[in-house]
Amino acid sequence: MKPKIFITRMMDEQVAAPLREKFDVRMWESETEPVPRTVLLKEAADAEALWTVISDRIDREIIEAGKKLRIIANMAVGFNNIDIEAAKEHDVVVTNTPDVLTETTADLTFALLLSTARQLTVAESELRKGNWKSWSPMQYTGMDAGGATIGIVGMGRIGEAVARRAKGFNMTVLYHNRNRKPDAEAAYGFEYRELDDLLKEADFVVLLTPYTKETAGLIGARELALMKKTAVLINVSRGGIVDEAALYNALKDHTIWAAGLDVFETEPVPLENPLLTLPNVTVLPHIGSASIRTRLAMMKLNAQAMVDVLEGREPENRVE
Ligand code: DGY
Which of 81, 101, 104, 296 for mutating ligand 1's site (highest number of atoms within 8 Å of CB)? Predict the structure, then answer.
């Protein structure tokens, strides 16, 4: 019997088809609807590989249901949706998709920063509603990115790629990270700051840190109060890094100027989320890595990792 791979979303056939030659590939046939928990539990029970996406909660129950499970290939650089401890205990390899999405995610981060700073989505929707009546000196005015100070929280690969883009905008780049980055400091002039100092000095605060026990709720009411009244917060990492209730208050009371969010505590973000009622919030549906080339490259990395593990080789991009 061929080893079984269960794929939790419809993946592109150019990547999935070659797997069918060697493996019994089953796929949840929806690009948009998540696989129901009951189906996932049932499919995991005899699968040797699970190919998952960031919105699948792969907890201990799923991992323990997978009696034959050898690998979980997660289509993301982040893997906070997987119980890594449980995977370790049960000798299940977990892999992710770093590097291939770095530049694409940095592009989106910068696009969101510029869009939020210059209120592009507000201006566009006003035009479409027929509210653009005349050219007006202070209408739809925003904040300048050129020459401003950007503070990057989480200076990993994506953080550095964003920082290099910021240099092209003549920005001063501050960063906060677990470890100092002397090479990047020397090569590009990025400056390290403690978190509180970064929050006080930056015109744009960009969150790119992984979601862990240490970073959950990292930006709350106290941190938001340290930021400038004219500051813009950009989150392209994970929603749980920011206390959304505190962010709502800060934006409503104009303690900070605006926020651009590609991620939310609950995804898809419920339409009742009060943040969606504020004009000074630009929102996106978690599309950091969403270019055609990058999404295909992520799929190829996942597919290769599963082939490697199922054929007894060490995969690239093992996270534990
Ligand atoms: C990641 O790779 O972690 C992204 O957030 C999902 O596209």
Answer: 101
- Collapsing DSSP to helix, strand or coil, 253 comes out as coil
- Whether 200 and 69 map to the same domain: the answer is no
> Is 123 found in the same domain as 106?
yes
Mean pLDDT, the chain cut into blocks of 10 residues (320 residues total): 96 96 95 93 98 97 98 97 98 98 98 98 97 96 98 97 98 97 94 98 98 97 98 98 98 98 97 98 98 98 98 94
- Counting other chains too, the contacts that 280-284 makes at CB distance below 8 Å and 24 or more residues apart are 280/251, 280/254, 281/251, 282/112, 282/115, 282/116, 282/119, 282/120, 282/121, 282/258, 284/108, 284/112, 284/260
- Which CATH number is 27's domain given? 3.40.50.720
Residues 28 and 144 in one domain: no
Question: Which residues sit with their C-beta closer than 6 Å to ligand 1?
Answer: 54, 76-78, 101, 288-289
Number of domains in the chain: 2
Can you tell me the distance from the alpha carbon of 244 to that of 265, in angstroms, rounded to the nearest whole number? 7
Residue range(s) defining the domain that contains residue 39: 4-98+292-310
